[in-house]
Amino acid sequence: MDEQGIRMAKKSRTSILKRQRELRKAEKAAMKREKRGQRGEPEEEDDGGGGQVASRDDLAGYGFPVDAESDAEEDR
Q1: Best CA proximity match to 46, nearest among 56, 35, 37, 57
Q2: Rounded to whole angstroms, how far apart are CA atoms 12 and 22?
Q3: Which of 18, 32, 46, 54 is positioned for an S-S bond with 58, CB 3.0–4.6 A?
Q4: Residue 65, CB half-sphere, CA atoms under 13 Å: how many?
Q5: Which residues contact 60 (CB under 8 A, 6 or more apart)?
Q6: pLDDT tens-digit series, residues 18-68
Q7: Phi, psi angles (nearest 5°) of residue 75
Q8: Rounded Cα–Cα distance for residues 24 and 45 (Å)
Q9: In degrees, to the nearest 5, what angle opens at C-alpha 59 toward C-alphas 55 and 61?
Q10: CA-CA distance, 12 to 2, in Å (whole number)?
Q11: pLDDT score for 49
């Protein structure tokens, strides 16, 4: 009991073990991120979902319409 006479629930063994597993897993992931950063590899979050982007010539080669107006808009 605490000062106000309210009893706290007893923590079960399984919930404590689960919390410890989650903590170890988070620590392991943090160590991997740190190690990856030291090797100079890009992190997944910083990737931005990018990759190669097709140029206008590539798009025209695939048969996509390429407007001259859109070129002028991007130059602004």
Answers
A1: 37
A2: 16
A3: 54
A4: 3
A5: 66
A6: 999 999 999 999 999 999 888 875 555 555 566 788 888 888 888 888 876
A7: -75, -15
A8: 21
A9: 115
A10: 19
A11: 61
The domains of the chain are located at 11-41
Task: List alpha helices for 1-76, DSSP H.
Answer: 13-39, 56-61, 68-74
Q: Is the pTM of this model over 0.85?
A: no
Pairwise CA distance, residues 23 & 14, whole Å: 14
In the structure encoding, which two tokens stand for residue 15, read together?
Answer: 């919930």
Q: Give the pair of three-digit tokens for residue 61.
A: 């080669």
State how far the alpha carbon of 69 is from the alpha carbons of 36, 40, 62, in Å: 43, 41, 19
